[in-house]
Write a structure and sequence with these properties.
alpha+beta; five-stranded mixed beta barrel; disordered N terminus; 217 residues; elongated; 6 strands; OB fold (Dihydrolipoamide Acetyltransferase, E2P); transmembrane helix
Amino acid sequence: MLALLALAASVLVGLSTPAYACSCADLSPARAVEHADAVFTGTVADVRAEEGPGRPRVYTFLADQIYKGRPAGRFTVASSADSASCGYAFERGGRYLVFAAAGSEGSMVAGVELSSTLCSGNVPVDPGAGPLRPGDEREAGHESLAGPVDAGLVKALGTPARPVAAGETFPVKEPLRAEEETGIGWGWIAGGAGAALLLAGAFTAVALRRRMHARRR
């Protein structure tokens, strides 16, 4: 009987182990930012399930503030649907501070470069579009390793950038268009002014010579 009880206990332990397979190391806000390739706040606009190991899900975010990475207005992030595999369940319509990394986790879905997990430090935050302020986190089903949103986290995030809108490009210094618009370039103007001064000097010299000859006569 004791042997049977021990065997049953070992089976139960073996069956329950996967539910607690995800274990995360302590993560400070500064380390969370350092380890991530993209850090942003954004709202989940779409969720789709993919077939494959770990039943990955792909989340589409509409970003409003970019703390690290390219200032894109839209991000797609993959995460496992299984919490035992450290998958993070983002809710459609929810706004989050997202820490995402480029690497093997994101490659489980073709065309998705970024991934995020329970160990990344994601924080559910209040709806909005402005930079995070202390106290902006909202209650969630699981705690964040990098949260809560306090002065330390805000300082570690730094000053955010606004995402680039669709069709918008970074400002680039444009060359002067005066020559194309008016047909007269600055070089021609400068050259003409120099020629005029030379002609004026020549006329002045000729006039002085004539006066000198007139006085001698």
